[in-house]
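Thread: "does anyone have the structure for this chain?"

Original post by V.I.:
We have the sequence but no experimental structure in hand. Need at least a predicted one for the grant figures.
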Amino acid sequence: MASTVLNFLLSTGKSIPAIGLGLGGNRSHVVEAVLQAIKVGYRHFDTATIYGTEAALGEALAEAFKSGLVRREEVFITSKLWNSEHEPEDVLSTVKKSLSLLQLEYIDLYLIHWPLKFKKGLEFQVKEDDFLPLDIKATWQALESCVQVGLVHAIGVSNFTVEKLTSLLDYAKIVPSVNQVERHPVWQQKKLKPFCDAKGILVSGWSPLGSPGSFYGTKDVITNPIVESIAKKHGKTPAQVALRWGVQTGAIVLPRSFNPKRVAENFEIFSWELSEDDMNEISRIEQRRTVLAEMFCNPTSGPYKTVQELWDGDL
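Reply from O.Q.:
Generated one for you, C-alpha cells below.
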C-alpha cells in the first residue's frame, strides 16, 4: 500500500483506513472485485449481514491470505447487525455466523445497522405489524459482550442521529467507535459531524458518491456544478473530488463499485488536496438528505411515524 494512504484512529486505539470498498448492492463478482481492490491498495472492506456478501468477501480474503497477497492484520473488516437480529440472545449467534462466513476469528468493527427492530427473519419488505419495540440498550450491551470475548474488536452504529447517539451515550460502557451514515457533498451532515467529532466518534460515509444507479441513489453528487468545476480545475474526476472532500473533512468514505477502472480511480485521492477555496465552495452546496428511508416509517406502528421522527428533523 502506498505510504500516502490516510488512516484514522478509532477510540480503541486501532487504525482504520480512510477509504473502504463498500460491498452492498450487487452480489456478483465480489470475489474478483475484492482481490482486485487489494492489489490496488484497499485494506478496508465494508459488508453487512443484509448485503449477502459476507461469504464472498470471506472467500476472497482466504485466497488473499493463502497467496500472500495480504496478511490478516493488514485488512480491516466492517460488518453490521440487521434489524431482525436485535434480541440480545441473537446478537452473539449472528456475530458467530458472520465470522464463519467471513472465515475470520474476529471482526474489526461491527455496527448496529439501523435504530430499528423487526420480527425474526425479515429483511426490507416489512409490514406495519412487523416492527418490534426498540431496545437499543439491550442490543448494545450484547455487542459489548462480543467485544469482551474478543469476537469483535470495535463496535459502533449506523444511521444514528445526534439525539439517538446522545441516548446511547447515556448508558454505553463502550463508546461507539464509528457512526456510519449517508455523507457526501450534497448531504454533509453539518449537525451530526461536529457532534461526533466532539464525542470521539468517527463518521463513516456510505454513498459518498450518492450511489448513482441504485434504487435509492442520486446523480446529484457527481453532476453537481461545483464538484464538476473543482474536478476540472484539478484534472480529477467528480468522484475523486467528492471522496477527497470526505477524507479531508476527517471522515471515512466507502465508495461501492465493482468496475476495476473506477475502483482504481476512487483510490487515487491521497496524493493531492483540495484548497481552502475548494472546501469553502463545497460547503456552500445546497443540502438535502437523499435517502429518507420512508419504508422504515409508518403512522400506526414502529418507533417512527414519519421520516422527520426517524431523522429527528435533520433533513
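V.I.: this helps a lot. The mean pLDDT is 95.
O.Q.: and The chain has eleven helices and ten strands.
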